[in-house]
Design brief:
The protein is built from 11 helices and 21 strands. By secondary structure, it is α/β, with parallel strands linked by helices. The strands form 3 sheets. Strands 8, 9, 10, 11, 18, 19, 20 and 21 form an 8-stranded mixed sheet that branches. Strands 1-2-5-3-4-7-6 form a 7-stranded mixed sheet. The protein has a 6-stranded mixed sheet with strand order 12-13-14-15-17-16. α11 links the parallel β14 and β15 (410-415).
Length: 498
Amino acid sequence: MSRTRLASTALVAVGSLVVAVVAGVTLFLSGSRTVVVASHDATVRPTLDGDVVVRTGPLLPDVRRQGDGPVGVDMVLGKTEASSADELIARYAFIASQPESQVDKVQAAVEDIAISAAVRGLGLGLVPLAVWLLLGPHRRGELFRGLRTRRGAVGAVLLVALPLALWQPWDADADRQEDEQDWITLGEFLGSAVPLPVEADGIEVRTGPTTTQTRRLIASAVSTYDKSKAFYAEAAETAADLDVRVPEEGETVALLVSDRHDNIGMDPVARAVGDAAGATVVLDAGDDTSTGQPWEAFSLDSLDRAFGDLDRFVVAGNHDHGEFVIGYLADLGWTTLDGEAVEGPGGGLILGVDDPRSSGLGDWRDESGLSFGEVEGRLAEVACESEDRISTMLVHDANLGREALARGCVDLVVGGHTHVQRGPEAVVGEEGRIGWTYTNGTTGGAAYAIAVGSKPRRDAGMSLVTYDEEGRPVGVQGIRLQTDGTFVVGEYAPLTYE
């Protein structure tokens, strides 16, 4: 290849790179993703002004804050589930007190847009270079000579007009009402009577005649945020120093949680308890949500952020209606138990199934519509037919394990559901074989199915299950966080089988 041709090809390659960059940036800035954030269906779009802007709709003020880098985010909140504006604002404040999982989710969405835009931009940028190389020097010469003709000039004009027609830069948006509204600091909006936490520095809201009526709600939210963050942060710090039993050599500890009911504030507290006891496994007995709807994804994101680096086993509770919760956690890498025994803590076998009272659940393999008693019987059949003894049965309601215990086919049944800690209780089954049943309290501190608030509504419970080197459960210890912020550490209860 002559130097002239080489130089021409290099020049086209540089032009292709420019096209790739311009196309990639354009696609990035025009891209969007729809994700569930802060209990809303939300549309996330990247910007280059560095601001994080949350557009809340016509009744609440938009919020913005300067981000940490040049890339910003414009997020439009859509549908959600709430019975009142007060409930919605309180939920915002609670989620804001533990925002890490939601920040990670938005960041992942922006990164996904960037990767997609880069790949597509590179593909578009390669088109000119590919065409240049495919035409070859002889055909390129003919095309360049053709540009000097009238037909060639018309073709060149059409080639330039095509992207302009697609882009239509002259088609400007109409003036918007929000453009007439100013941004003011949150402190100015609420007034000096409302003390703001330091985390609120830099937050601005958009003023307007409608949103000025929301000052009382936002002031209440700030108070909820402050109390919630302080309560759970102090609880997590205290939990790290609790006098809990630590495993001996060869033992494995699992942290048992249940009935969180969207209380993401307890996630770092439960993790701190697990870390204090050297837990490497999480057993989740269900009811992580209150309704099982997609708007509650924030709770599942928080759960996974707290325990994502541990071995994780989960079943759905009766409030985790439908298939959303268990499918979402499966996508996040949780082991969802579905009626087949798998390797569990310490190498022992673990068996479990979703609660049959949850709408859309209760299936057994390809069979549906089974009652609680029928599922209880099926679990016992699987446990008793197993070649190796079942070490742990994880269910939402420990009563699902009654028949398996009565037949002497399982070492330990753990569950939740009642929101009250109970056990461990020994059960003597057939041929004198001993098993144990244990019910965890509500990790979310939930009264009924509600746990969102600045502190637990009742004692928040979690438990530690210890396994020996063969994967057999040998002890249980319950821990409760009381509503006044103090902990009650139960005695370690050994589990024996003779």
